Amino acid sequence: MPAYAAGLAALAAFLAVGLTGTRSYLDNFLQYRGFAPPQEPAYVKRPGTLQRILVPSAALGGRKQEAYVYLPSGYAQHPHRRYPVLYLLHGFPGRPLAFLETVQMGVIDDALTATHKAKPLILVMPFGSTGTFTDEEWVNGVQPGNDWATFVARDLVRAVDARYRTIRSAQGRAIGGLSEGGYGAINIVLHHPREFSVVESWSGYEQPDKIRSIFGVHLGKLAANDPRSLVTKVAPTLRKVGTYMWFYSGSTDPLHVQNVAFARELSSLGIPHHFFLVYGGHNWALWRDNARAAYLAAAKRLHA
């Protein structure tokens, strides 16, 4: 019996260690998507800082919505300097911190600032839902208190401008996103063309999904959130204010067909843009590989 009991104890200990290891691996994968945790280059002596804020939003029925703000290196040391802002919208299912933990935008911000290869940007990453698996598409939906586009373009922008030393004009703001966030960024700019001067879409789309919980039982709000038709109507304003669109898609991503067609439409309308295909599909490796180019595209055109 003692030997049997000892064997059971050893087996239990082995299983406990195994389960702990498995849970640790899963937690790491969910946080970093299988990549190594972000690490600052040795030459970055003063990394940026991350803050979590709660934004009171009339567009969301008065709820306080979570957002994360990454203040670039040197922000605290230059109290009279104002900074351009890059707003980043996550995909579905998604979470805002993936831009720092997986895509490594904070490391890119710090590295480019330290080497003087780009101007420092404030990064703002809102949470665009009430839950990780609740799809809102970053649009003003049919349900009361679900005006997500208005939350970003009005409530979030005003809150960030009030709390931080930002450049408080469209010339100091860019908005971008990956996958669903790319669609959201384009759609928000088409509804609020005077709020942002640069819009980026990383593997996004221009044809919204027919989600009845968002657009209505009879999809009454679908057409009002379809960039393919909206861009024609808003084109004169976009040209007047000088909006620049930067977007890409993976060569094997089925969504690339929509993006190629949208790029042609922008060309015919005379809207400044840059679209390109990159080798790959619809995944985190693609977004990590192109994150530096995305940062540079925004930093180059935003006023400092």
How would you describe what is shown here?
There is one protein chain. This protein is an alpha/beta fold and 304 residues long. The chain has 2 domains: 1-32; 37-301, Alpha/Beta hydrolase fold, catalytic domain (Rossmann fold), CATH 3.40.50. The chain is built from 10 helices and 8 strands. An 8-stranded mixed sheet has the order 1-2-4-3-5-6-7-8, sandwiched between helices. The protein is globular, with a radius of gyration of 21 Å.
Question: Spatial order of the strands in the main sheet?
Answer: 1-2-4-3-5-6-7-8
- How many domain modules? 2
The major pleated sheet works out as: 8 strands, mixed
Alpha-beta content class: alpha/beta
Order of helices and strands: HEEEHHEHEHEHHEHEHH
What is the count of β-strands?
8
The percentage of residues in β strands lies in 15-25%
Distance between the termini: 76 Å
**Helix content range:** 40-55%
Q: CATH homologous superfamily of the largest domain, by name?
A: Alpha/Beta hydrolase fold, catalytic domain
Question: Outline, from the CA principal axes?
Answer: globular
Mean pLDDT across the residues is: 92
Using the CA coordinates, give the radius of gyration: 21 Å
Please state the second-level CATH architecture of the largest domain. Answer: 3-Layer(aba) Sandwich
Quick one: CATH class of the largest domain? Alpha Beta
